[in-house]
Amino acid sequence: MSIERVGVIGGGLMGSGIVEVNARAGLDVVLVEVSDEAAKSAHDRIVASLERAADRGKISPQDLAAALERISVTDDLERLADRQLVVEAASEVEQVKLDLFRRVGRILIDEDAILTSNTSSIPIVKLGAVSGRADHVMGVHFFNPAPVMKLVELIPSLTTAPTTMDRMRAYVTDGLGKEPIEATDRAGFVVNSLLVPYLLSAIRMYEAGYASAADIDRGMVLGCGHPMGPLALSDLIGLDTIRAIGISMYDEFKEPLYSPPPLLDRMVDAGLLGKKSGHGFYPYG
Ligand code: CAA
Ligand code: NAD
After folding, report:
1. Domain 191-276, CATH 2.30.30.40 — does that match?
2. CATH says 5-182 is which class?
């Protein structure tokens, strides 16, 4: 049974991109945010992104209109009741996710419905344990910006049923046209286990005064061919999210390289969260 009705929880950077990807793939999507106002701003972000894609000739005006028809937004979690798949993309805060999994696990009507998290680092097994349907819970980790990045990490936990994994692989490949890799349920999975210590090292380097932010970034763009430097990428991801991922990874492995440096803590405390707040290592107009 293929997946046609999807729910997304959280319409921030990732959730709004995930909604766009699903709607462009022809799936019906309900997006749930914390308030009516947050739901409306998520919808505005999705519309703006789809309009940009249409302006660049990537989708036709008809496809743009059809994609928008497939999206509804709400602040009511109960609207997820008829979904075949829910992708939770709320903030990277364990208590928030545990609460959502506890509630949504009981809201879903279809006993075959799958409940997933886009978490970067929180153990999937814990989310399954509170959901009342642990065999139908796993991680599905999209990359930022979701409409552009091809990769999706699929993370079954110790309690995920093999059929859940099979259905999610089909959804990612045949449904969305993305490329999956499978990772075990360890904080950071594959990509963040490699990426996050690199980003935190760049922040430490900047904090220690090795070079300017621009020169650290130019070093990695021009010297290693990366599409963007580590500090600009940190701003794109969100400094609060990187900090939360570093903390989860440090909690799990006690590896000093995963521990957030003081400058990152101070920037998050100051509300300098990167592109999404208008200022991080760089200002954004
Ligand atoms: N939404 C939709 N499309 C977007 C977009 C967005 N937010 N940002 C860029 N694009 C599209 C553009 O429309 C453009 O498409 P076309 O070429 O088809 O017209 C294409 O992406 C390139 O965009 P730009 O020309 O504006 O800019 P660019 O060439 O500098 O690329 C980038 C921007 C795609 C972000 C590129 O710099 C890049 O790949 N950066 C690295 C991103 C990365 O590493 N992401 C992973 C982060 S880690 C993560 O996600 C996991 C985690 O848990 C933290
Ligand atoms: P974000 O801060 O941009 O957005 C989070 C959204 O979740 C906010 O709009 C917030 O209002 C909403 N939210 C919080 N609690 C909620 C609740 N109880 N119900 C509904 N909505 C709620 O964060 P983001 O960058 O989109 O990250 C979301 C998730 O995706 C995190 O788990 C993060 O680790 C993961 N992730 C992030 C990136 C990235 O590059 N930023 C990449 C891959 C995965």
Report:
1. no
2. alpha beta
Q: What is the pTM of this model?
A: 0.97
Which value does ipTM take for this structure? 0.96
Active site residues: 120, 141, 153, 192
Question: How do residues 142-165 score in pLDDT, each as one tens digit?
Answer: 999 999 999 999 999 999 999 999
SS3 162: helix
Give 268-281 pLDDT, tens digit per residue.
999 999 999 999 99
Helices (H), 108-260: 124-131, 162-170, 191-207, 213-224, 230-237, 239-253
Residues with CB under 6 A from ligand 2: 9-15, 32-34, 38, 89-92, 96, 100, 118-120, 141-144, 237-238, 241, 276
Which residues does residue 231 pair with via DSSP β-bridges, in sequence order? none
Q: Which residue has the tokens 């904080």?
A: 187
User: Which protein residues touch ligand 1 with a CB less than 6 Å away?
Assistant: 49, 56, 58, 120, 143-145, 147-149, 192, 195, 227-228, 233, 237
